[in-house]
Give the backbone structure.
Amino acid sequence: MKALVKYASGIGNVGVRDVPIPEIAADEILIKIKYCGICGTDLHIYADEYPNTPPVIMGHEYCGTVVKVGEAVRDEWSVGDRVVGELHTGACGTCELCQAGKPHICDSKLALGSKYNGAFAEYMSLPAWLAHHLPDGISWEVAGVTEPFAITTHCLIERGQMGNERSVLISGAATMGLMSAIWASRLGIKTIIVSGTDTDQDMRFPLAKEMGATHVVNVQRENLRDIVMDLTNGVGVDTWIECSGSGAAIKSGLQLVRKTGKVVLIGLIGPETIPIPWNTLHYKELDIAACFSSPPSSWQKALAVEGDEAPKLRQLVTEIIPLEDWERGFDMMRKGIGVKILVDMEA
Ligand SMILES: [Zn+2]
Ligand SMILES: [Zn+2]
């Protein structure tokens, strides 16, 4: 079968290769992949800035159809079932974190698509405990963005405990920011401000409004502070959701949250450390929810509302490309063109 493989460490060393169709163990299913989305993480794996163990098949945002079922999981899965799934392969299942429903941060995790063969492939074997049935009526295009949607579900709902806000600032207008806007709108938050840069102007800002943003702010052309203070009677937003991973956005964002407000951290930063006005956290008594990835509980919550939000989620799929065009897809992501690009593994 064809698969996109990181075949050696170092920058690049990624290409389409012919590899054997995987065998499955008794507790696994074999999935014929329909779509696999290109993620920022894939660019970091390409650039060797994210831990990976080559040779490894890349890709972790997938959906597809079950074509083979291991004997131990036949009560739950049948050939022909439509499936989406998590990427927490290798999680031990027995440590305190796994037992608490947090395999996404288990020390033993070998993430699918970077340390475990992933989904830019015609077929993928998956331990069945990571698989979720795709609800009826969900299109493949929407199924293909379930993983990032589960992340925002985890960050805003589980970690952030959001729901009582009157106002939010979402910094960053790429996938995480736009999906956060979907959730903020769903929660009925009255003032939803999405901030970004010139790159977001033509496509992502209009999309942010479609997702439910009440205001969009281009920080390169407008004064974010003035706008936020204007909209919040001079006190700042109830909650700030940081999705940009930009040092400048992080530094300014802290000034825009009201006292006793909340900060939900989603975007990872490039450098190891950045300066932040630490005492501001104290003086304002801010609550911080730092988040990473998507535990099983967040997948259940995301899938429960995916049908409702399908019209919005579908708009976040900018383009669907065949595997042979993967380099163009990676390049679009690098340049910040569009939002999600799905690779059609059946094309
Ligand atoms: Zn991802
Ligand atoms: Zn564990």
